[in-house]
Amino acid sequence: MQEPGKATVIIGTQFGDEGKGKIVDCISDKFEYVCRAQGGSNAGHTVVVDGQKFAFHLLPSCILRSNAKAVIGNGVVIHLPSLLNEILHVESQNILNVRSRLFISERAHIVFDFHQLVDKISDSSKGKDSIGTTGKGIGPTYSSKILRTGLRMSDLISDFNSFSLRARCMFSQYQKQYCELNHDIDMELEKMEKLRELFKPMVVDTMVLVNHALEQKRAVLVEGANAHL
């Protein structure tokens, strides 16, 4: 399963819910790095350790293992308040060094609260053609990424004035599309500024990190979200 200098990748080849998370949890103790490749907080899996239940949506489940390094890659879209809640829950169960073992890609895009509102408004407007979205803002965030209007972790930790201006511009564009969109963008940006300081030490170039690990013959596991079909 492990070959020095090469990553092991777990992917789903059907329609999802194939048990990828369970497989990752079962074998992650054999790897030093476990990486989330894509997706967001709309999916996840539950791990039970010593009777304690952990529900993971953004954090790689390897974070429960004290010697493992968890990587959130550039293909993941991150709702920072949700990620913080997961971190706090894990820390409350006396899991050590969570923040120093978590590495977040500087290229990962950010899910804003207004992305989640747009997700719900857009889906509900389709009536009987609604796809039943989770309302986590994943689709709108990936749309922002493709349109190059989205904001990345690197934007958040650099010039916050520029970050705020671009966030307001993105929100304004959504307001023009969805007249019923009602949201306090000032409050969200205040929250983002606080989260900025908390997450800044965890943000790195994960491509360099993982490639260096592979060059050093470290054991790397990549956890794919969603499924092929």
Automatic annotation (TrEMBL):
InterPro entries, per the entry: Adenylosuccin_syn_GTP-bd, Adenylosuccin_syn_Lys_AS, Adenylosuccinate_synth_dom1, Adenylosuccinate_synth_dom2, Adenylosuccinate_synthetase, P-loop_NTPase
Q: What is its EC number?
A: 6.3.4.4
Q: Name one GO cellular component term.
A: cytoplasm
One GO term in the molecular function aspect is: adenylosuccinate synthase activity
Q: Which Gene3D superfamilies match?
A: Adenylosuccinate Synthetase, subunit A, domain 1, Adenylosuccinate Synthetase, subunit A, domain 2
In its UniProt record, which GO terms are filed under biological process?
Answer: 'de novo' AMP biosynthetic process; IMP metabolic process
Query: Keyword GTP-binding, does the record have it?
Result: yes
Reaction(s) catalysed by this chain, per the record, are: IMP + L-aspartate + GTP = N(6)-(1,2-dicarboxyethyl)-AMP + GDP + phosphate + 2 H(+)
Which UniProt keywords are given for this protein, alphabetically ordered? GTP-binding, Ligase, Magnesium, Metal-binding, Nucleotide-binding, Purine biosynthesis
What's a Pfam family this protein contains?
Adenylsucc_synt
Q: In which pathway does it act?
A: Purine metabolism; AMP biosynthesis via de novo pathway; AMP from IMP: step 1/2
Subunit structure and binding partners: Homodimer.
Q: What's this chain's function? A: Plays an important role in the de novo pathway of purine nucleotide biosynthesis.
Q: What is this protein's name? A: Adenylosuccinate synthetase
Source organism of the structure: Myxobolus squamalis (Myxosporean)
